[in-house]
Design a protein that fits this description.
Layout: E1 8-16, E2 22-30, H1 32-35, E3 58-63, E4 80-84, E5 89-93, E6 98-101, E7 116-125, E8 132-138, E9 141-149, E10 182-186, E11 191-195, E12 201-207, E13 215-217, E14 221-229, E15 236-248, E16 254-262, E17 269-273, E18 279-291, E19 294-295, E20 313-323, E21 329-344
Parallel strand pairs: 3-4, 7-9
Antiparallel strand pairs: 1-2, 4-5, 5-6, 8-9, 10-11, 12-21, 13-21, 14-20, 15-18, 15-21, 16-17, 16-20, 17-18, 18-19
Length: about 350
């Protein structure tokens, strides 16, 4: 603690003791104004003893007087009290003894209005995991909001009955099924639907010995073979792929091109290879829809190169000369291949 300085009056007296030795006595007197000044607090003391936990204060009933107090109470009954009718007092059990407070209980108040609780909102969500209850309102008129979380996942139920996919709300019934079609999902409509097979119906294929033998001639066209697709129960369009050898003399005015035509030698073109000259060239054949030298612009509703339902179709393979030359062209069946799919229409 810091030193305290204040004005004071000091009186010193000198008196001899019984043996004649001097004894000094000092007296200090402060002014009344200084005497009433508060002293500063000292250092904090040691912590006191920890008190007992607070008990629940519960009214247990009424008793006539001290003689009718309940018996057999222990420490676990601390905080219980009884209304003493002889003096309107309270008898409180402290855990070890009784404590009486006379006239502590006043007269009974008026009867309160009946309490009502109205449930105003119930919130339920599978994402909520903590329950909650909130009361609001004034007096006996109370409102209740309840949050009900999802419970524990239950056991797996029995398998349901099989349904019809075409009856589902997310199935596009405006797109009709096609022969050999597949089940697909449309990002545009966000619905499932029937769709044509990616490559169509089939395939049919032919290789090497199925084609005509190698031939070179100074002609406009050398036929490599005619291949028949049987009648199908739906309208369709050929999708043709392959690889074949073609030949043309080396000059600047002509080349040879592999061409696949529908039905006959002058039919609509459904596949071609690259035109080349200068010797034998092994080139791919790929879908190309052409009428003579004019390539057709195609769409799902185009009626070009369509084979009607119930009718067979011939695919005629040939090496054809293009340009203004009159020199030799050729076709070879070595490693020749043809693969055909039938893409349904409608």
């Amino acid at each position: 603690m810091a030193d305290i300085t204040f004005p004071a009056h000091i009186t010193v007296r000198r008196q001899p003791d019984a043996d004649g030795l001097p004894v000094l006595t000092a007296e200090t007197t402060v002014s009344p104004e200084m005497a009433v000044l508060p002293l500063p607090p000292g250092p904090p003391g040691e912590p006191g003893r920890r008190g007992r936990p607070r008990s629940t204060f519960r009214k247990m009933g009424t008793i006539a007087d001290a003689a009718t107090r309940p018996l057999g109470l222990g420490a676990e009954d601390r905080g219980k009290w009884w209304h003493r009718l002889d003096d309107n007092g309270m008898d409180v059990w402290t855990g070890t003894a009784w404590r009486h407070s006379p006239d502590a209980v006043g007269p009974q108040g008026p009867v309160a209005a009946p309490n009502t609780i109205a449930v105003t909102e119930t919130v339920h969500s599978e994402d909520l995991i903590v329950p909650a209850v909130e009361f609001s309102g004034v007096g006996a008129d109370q409102q209740l909001k309840v949050t009900v979380p999802a419970g524990q996942r239950g056991p797996k139920g029995p398998p349901g009955a099989s349904g019809t996919i075409s009856a589902a709300v997310d199935y596009d019934t405006e797109t009709l099924p096609t022969q050999g079609g597949v089940f697909a999902y449309s990002k545009a409509t966000r619905k499932f639907r029937s769709a044509p097979a990616p490559l169509g119906f089939g395939p049919w294929s032919w290789f090497q010995e199925d084609f005509a033998a190698e031939q070179i001639a100074a002609t406009n066209r050398i036929e490599g073979g005619t291949f028949t697709i049987p009648a199908l129960p739906f309208a369709w369009r050929p999708v043709v792929h392959g690889h074949m050898y073609s030949y043309s003399v080396a000059n600047s005015v002509q080349s040879a091109e592999i061409v696949v035509r529908l039905h006959h030698s002058q039919g609509q073109i459904v596949a071609t290879g690259l035109g080349g000259s200068g010797g034998w060239m092994y080139l791919p054949v790929f879908p190309c829809y052409r009428d003579g030298s004019t390539t057709k612009a195609m769409s799902p509703t185009t009626d070009f190169a369509i084979v009607p339902a119930g009718q067979p179709a011939n695919l005629v393979v040939a090496a054809e000369r293009i340009g203004t030359g009159t020199g030799d062209i050729g076709f070879s069946n070595a490693k020749a291949s043809l693969v055909v799919f039938a893409r349904p229409i409608g």
